[in-house]
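Lecture notes, continued. The same structure-token format from the folding unit now serves as the input rather than the output. Read the line below as a description of shape only.
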């Protein structure tokens, strides 16, 4: 179940609203754990043996999807998951709209005073065109996608994302929803203790929840979250300030960064690349290579590529591409991740990929020991369920 978000911008809502949110979170946990396991067993025990006898064993996620599309277990799973996704957003909209004035005051207070003095800035560009991968659809069914603005200086889309993600992740991403950021940043800190980045940018940062983890891990670094969506950036800026963190936020398209060549130590992103058309992914990686200093690091957290998982797991992880308004997800996961990095200018011997356990739920010493051992991608990699581990891939310039 989701816990209260650990910042002053958390809107609790009425008891009835909170009960509804608990229900939706529980429903998602049930669908993604219990129903997903039942569906996998059904495929492996009821469907696949028969297909294999007929020499028609599915060889790819697409093949498995073809089989499952007409299967009633999958249809039931899929409709439950789709509806739970819509319910996530519905469950947070009402409390946020009821609490809008009060939340607006808290946002203003966070920005004007903050928990401590801070130099961090928010830079918006009113002329920036919102790219169609964001503007043309309600990404993952969120009403208004990331960028909707109904008033001047609107921050509501950011608040919806924060509170929605809390319900969506059913307590598996930490109380500030920053476990991915902490897991990635601490993986780098533990594995490369001599690396001392002074400039870190996080592409597609949304509300900066995972950006903040880099500032906590590397407090001396200048950390900047980059996104195209102003309402998310405004909210994210206030959220970071409320936590007393000096994180900058900038409205920029990650396909054309305005940083000089060789000027950044880490270009990071999490759950970002899969929302871009492949042509834009190539541009983002080329930009990362251009702006990185020699010795700098490009690092992306994503679901693992399709060629690293079984046909069934590939089908399972591609669900969002077909049913959750994330049309580029599959095309991205079908890419050769090594080839993408080579094309961007990163040499093969400087590339790496890894799996990390969740930092938030371990003692720091245990985490440091755990990441000494390299583990392969498995069925829990990136799957929001019990035993989840995160996948990262990167390259040194
Ligand atoms: C799934 S969210 C990323 C979530 C976040 N990084 C995390 O760790 O949970 C994708 C974000 O990328 C942003 N985005 C999409 N296209 C972009 C682009 N071309 N440049 C910058 N941001 C972009 C969207 O506005 C959205 O906030």
């Amino acid at each position: 179940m989701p816990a209260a978000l650990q910042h002053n911008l958390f809107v609790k809502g009425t008891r009835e609203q909170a009960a509804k949110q608990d229900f939706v979170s529980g429903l998602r946990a049930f669908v993604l754990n219990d129903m997903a396991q039942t569906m996998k067993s059904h495929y492996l025990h009821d469907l696949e043996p028969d297909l294999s006898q007929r020499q028609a064993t599915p060889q790819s996620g697409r093949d498995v999807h073809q089989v499952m599309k007409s299967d009633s277990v999958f249809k039931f799973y899929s409709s439950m998951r789709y509806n739970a996704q819509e319910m996530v957003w519905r469950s947070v909209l009402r409390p946020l709209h009821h609490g809008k004035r009060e939340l607006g005051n808290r946002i203003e207070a966070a920005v004007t005073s903050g928990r401590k003095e801070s130099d961090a800035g928010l830079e918006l560009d009113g002329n920036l065109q919102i790219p169609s991968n964001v503007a043309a659809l309600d990404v993952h069914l969120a009403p208004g996608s990331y960028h909707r603005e109904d008033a001047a200086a609107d921050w509501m889309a950011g608040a919806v994302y924060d509170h929605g993600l809390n319900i969506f992740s059913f307590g598996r991403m930490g109380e500030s929803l920053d476990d991915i950021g902490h897991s990635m940043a601490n993986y780098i800190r533990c594995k490369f203790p001599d690396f001392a980045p002074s400039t870190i940018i996080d592409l597609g940062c949304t509300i900066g929840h995972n950006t903040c983890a880099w500032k906590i891990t590397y407090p001396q670094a200048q950390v900047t979250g980059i996104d195209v969506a102003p309402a998310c950036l405004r909210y994210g800026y206030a959220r970071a300030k409320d936590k007393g963190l000096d994180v900058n936020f900038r409205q920029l398209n990650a396909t054309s960064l305005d940083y000089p060549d060789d000027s950044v130590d880490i270009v990071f992103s999490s759950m970002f690349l899969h929302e871009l058309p492949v042509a834009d992914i190539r541009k983002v990686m080329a930009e990362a290579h251009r702006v990185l200093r020699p010795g700098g690091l490009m690092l992306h957290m994503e679901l693992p590529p399709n060629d690293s998982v079984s046909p069934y797991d590939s089908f399972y992880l591609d669900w969002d591409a077909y049913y959750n308004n994330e049309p580029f997800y599959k095309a991205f996961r079908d890419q050769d991740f090594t080839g993408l990095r080579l094309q961007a200018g990163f040499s093969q011997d400087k590339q790496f990929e890894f799996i990390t356990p969740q930092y938030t739920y371990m003692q720091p010493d245990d985490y440091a020991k755990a990441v000494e051992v390299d583990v392969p991608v498995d069925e829990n990699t990136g799957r929001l369920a019990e035993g989840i581990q995160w996948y990262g891939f990167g390259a040194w310039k």
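Point for the exam: DSSP finds 15 helices and eight strands in the chain.
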